[in-house]
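We emphasize that the prediction below concerns an isolated chain of 263 residues; any contacts that depend on oligomerization or on bound cofactors are therefore not represented. The input was used exactly as deposited, without trimming of termini.
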Amino acid sequence: MNTSDKQYLNIVENILSKGYYSQNRTGIATFKLPHQIMQFDLSKEFPILTTKFVAFKTAVKELLWIYRDQSNDVKKLQEQNVHIWDEWMLEDGTIGKAYGYQISKFKQIDKLIDTLKNDPQSRRMIMSMWNIADLPDMSLQPCCYETLWDVEGDRLNCMLVQRSGDIPLGVPFNMCQYAVLVNLIAHVTGFKPGIFTHVINNAHIYENQVDGMKLQLTRKNETYDAPTLWINPEIKNFYDFTIDDIKLLDYKHHDKIKMEVSV
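Result of the prediction step, given as a token string:
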């Protein structure tokens, strides 16, 4: 089963045909639409695009950096040959009080796991990186800033709220890495992965990315089956996961599409 490409490319088509043309802080105009939503049943598919190559390992390394390492140190990513945060690195080598800093500051992973184990019907299971007091001290304020968690029987559901989504480059990473996070949290708390809902407040395509998106749309009728996520069954503690414990099996895809990042 694969609904990832269909849902994603529907958003792309809508932005290109109906999107509002606007300027923004980067100086490169975008076509944008508000309130775009994708939803996946993680018991039936792992959401990753097949109409282009998505660097799964890089996405997972960033995810572990934020939630396992709870780090803001860009050098830790560079040591793993991950350079997606280089443009936002400050003089001290960090991204300021952003992302993993906020997860660590409030022990958010520990609190989520504890609540899932001891009060799974709580309606207050939220992790947020949107700390208003610390926003001025972030080199980039978080795009994927909040997750809301819910238990339905033996299934763990999650909603990701993203204030701003670079559809060609950021969102393909985000949709698969947060699906991984749901699977990891479910694994260590004894639940099965359930529904993953991805809400994007401002979904946009930069003007210089349009040609790449049109190329990807030519592949919409040539998708592959969704791959399978493998998680090391021996790992019981969230903080013990490494990149080698998380693998994508049978990932078939079209070629990568090179597009520019706007900073």
